[in-house]
Amino acid sequence: MSAAEPSRVHVVGAGLAGLAAAVWLAAEGRSVQLHEAAPQAGGRCRSYFDTEIGCRIDNGNHLLLAGNRAALDYLSQIGALGTFESPGEVVFPFIDAATGERWALRPNRGAVPWWVFRRNARVPGSRAWDYHAALGLRQADPSATVAEVLARRRSLFHRLWAPLAVAALNTSAEQASAKMFWRILAETLGRGAATCRSLLPRVGLSETFVDPALAHLRVQGVEIRFGARLKAMAFEPDRVSELMFDSGSIRLGSKDSVILAVPAAIAARLVPALIVPDLYSPIVNAHFRCDTTAETPFFVGVIGGSAEWIFRKRGVLSVTVSAADRMVDRPAPELRDLFWRDVALAYRLPAHSMPQARIVKERRATFLASPQQLSRRPKQTTMWRNLLLAGDYVDTGLPATIEGAIRSGFVAARLTVDYRPRAFHQIGASNSISQAEQEQDHALP
Q1: Considering its fold, how many domains does the chain have in total?
Q2: How high is the pLDDT of residue 153?
Q3: What is the domain-level CATH number for residue 435?
Q4: Does 284 share its domain with 273?
């Protein structure tokens, strides 16, 4: 074939990783075809109208921070930065469900954590020196858990470190990787208030992350195929040669590439010998149809209750419980009653007047962020020169978050122009593009 032969990138999966890859490639003028098995895009990050409570809700609760630079770069490219709202002050409010005590974490500007020296900016009952223990996460053994490093300061562990670790990693502090938690703290509290400013979609997840991306991609000429389930791929010694969908097959040209941006279990079924995380952690969400005033907090962390985090959205108060093994098998009416007690307490609402509610259970929400499961995360390159992996389960250096998924999509897109085949046994090897390069490339101007 001639050197002028056109090439196309097939992105399989229209979750945030796949959308991010397609957006990056379209911006580079590449020919892109996006395939999605479901009738809609977004994966776990989407909104829908719930007939039970009669309003639009998000599939889950995802908190974006101003320090999530890959996500903000993605939103900038699709013209969706204006779809957010944010509190003017960087503050993380908490309430103790047992005592009713309220407090707030108030990070200061700059990387030096002066806030730990201010009594009204730190956890009640804690001392500035107590926070020094968090530095032990950085030097922790790769097999160490958050609890093994931080549980000695019981009050601070219970009121701050454990809730943050569970929220960020969707894994209990007794199981969660200390190294991974350090990475999260280093990218948020470790960089000061500017990176901790919370950003919440003004309308919903789809209206911020998904709908603008689809509109942008269509304007860029990207072909988007819904209801296109990839059932198999044909492999030659060094490349993927054919994509076999339910509706038919696509033969790949010699310069065509594939970015497989599907969930881990599906990727493992499609790619021979691929090792992926295989233990998962559940999330339980509750959505209460409830109007609140603009003066109420955007979110509240609950200590010692049934709920963990409560988010104020348009016409809805939404509860999230991560690492929800203790909750996922309970009946919905029981969960509704338990959660509403915490919601009413946190937002000063009548406990006896419970609104309509929807309980949503995700039994396999994200992979378990334990040291053992992290070692199973694959790199984004494969032994086939035209096959790249993307998704929150790949080795991004971050847990299964929006930022990690989008970052993986960007990296996979970049790698389509820099094939570096590898053998699957090189699980401990570094990514072809370093983390520092990723962050520099995706930072906002």
Answers
A1: 3
A2: 76
A3: 3.50.50.60
A4: no
Radius of gyration of the chain, Cα coordinates, nearest whole angstrom: 22
Q: Which residues in 63-174 belong to E strands, given as ranges? A: 64-65, 84-85, 92-96, 102-105
Domain that holds residue 155: 106-196
Q: Helices in 60-150 by DSSP H: which ranges?
A: 69-77, 146-150
| Amino acid at residue number 195 | T
C-alpha–C-alpha distance, residues 334 and 385, integer Å: 52
The verdict on pTM exceeding 0.70 is yes
The span from the CA of 203 to the CA of 85, in Å, is: 9
155-214 confidence digits (pLDDT tens): 899 999 999 999 999 999 999 999 999 999 999 999 999 999 999 999 999 999 999 999
Tokens 């195929």 belong to 225
Closest CA to 226 of 210, 237, 209: 210
On whether both 137 and 189 belong to a single domain, the answer is yes
DSSP 431: P
Domain boundary (310, 345, 367) is at 367
Q: Count Cβ atoms below 10 Å from residue 415 Cβ, excluding itself.
A: 21
Tally Cβ neighbours within 10 Å of residue 4.
5
